[in-house]
Design goal:
With 291 residues, this protein is α/β, with parallel strands linked by helices. It is built from 13 helices and 12 strands.
Length: 291
């Protein structure tokens, strides 16, 4: 059983904002091998007030009333918040047991470390979605990195901490396209309310991405990191020596230099070994969510 806290910038359902955090939450809720201890919100896809209000709404829609939800800091100016306090407290309460899944800015994580210098070492591992190792190109368009660049100092402190860190970059997430075939699966399972919910919450984003990038579908960025936690065997393991400074991370760049003596070691998978199995695992988890 995986003890997980999900730190996210959930905007599923917000106009012209990504849906990946919300789909990831549904995945976590549907996994029988996950003990989801709580959810904390952070900025990234939108401002913290919008993210948190939207997550509260999602909790109401899904009738989630037994899961802690804490609001994070609005910016990197002051990283202290209910979320950072909760993260520090829980890591101390369950030393070596919690996997922290973070899919937005990493402000709350650094805030927790500011409260407790043992925070990173108290965690079992940190799994992140973010960062790029080269330009991220979608159908000829360059896409700016978001998550690590939102708070580059926090990103640096997390990546270079003494925690075991795995990063699912934008590049590997391009392998997880939620396209026409996936929407067809939603239609075929229309009798389940959760699939109706997902379709209704994502169709506007599907159309937005098609208009912006000319592709049929959207990339399921954050859920790749969640599936890594439950099915690491679906991914290659690639330990890299990262030498990025906070300045580099202002653009989300993970600079790799295996010969460096001053870098920090991060696991950066590059491949989803079986994308069909990946999608089956996701749909099966979603299907278990009651609504």
């Amino acid at each position: 059983m995986h003890k997980i806290i999900f730190d996210c910038d959930n905007t599923m359902g917000v106009k012209n904002c990504d849906v990946d955090d919300g789909l990831t939450l549904l995945y976590l809720l549907g996994r029988e091998d996950i003990d989801l201890l709580g959810v904390t919100t952070t900025f990234g896809n939108s401002k913290i007030d919008i993210v948190h209000k939207n997550t509260e709404k999602m909790f109401d829609e899904l009738k989630i009333n037994n899961l802690p939800l804490y609001k994070g800091a609005p910016s990197s100016v002051n990283r202290q918040s209910e979320a950072s306090q909760y993260l520090a407290r829980m890591a101390k309460e369950y030393p070596g047991e919690i996997t922290l899944l973070a899919t937005g800015s990493l402000t709350n994580l650094l805030g927790a470390y500011e409260l407790d210098s043992d925070f990173f070492s108290n965690l079992k591992e940190i799994v992140l979605m973010g960062g790029i190792t080269k330009p991220l190109i979608i159908n000829g368009k360059n896409l700016d990195e978001l998550n690590f660049s939102c708070d580059s100092k926090a990103s640096y402190e997390v990546l270079s901490s003494d925690a075991m860190v795995t990063v699912l970059t934008g590049h590997i997430c391009l392998q997880a396209l939620f396209g026409d075939n996936e929407y067809k699966r939603l239609m075929e399972r229309d009798s389940k309310k959760i699939y109706q919910y997902i379709r209704n919450k994502t169709i506007d984003w599907f159309e937005y991405v098609m208009n912006e990038f000319g592709i049929q579908g959207f990339y399921n960025w954050d859920i790749v990191a969640a599936v890594y936690i439950t099915h690491p065997q679906l991914f290659d393991r690639k330990l890299e020596k990262v030498v990025s400074t906070p300045e580099d991370l202002k653009k989300g760049y993970l600079k790799i230099n295996q010969e460096s003596y001053s870098g920090y070691e991060v696991n950066i998978p590059t491949r989803i070994e079986d994308i069909n199995r990946f999608n089956n695992i996701v749909f099966e988890a979603w299907g278990r969510v009651k609504i």
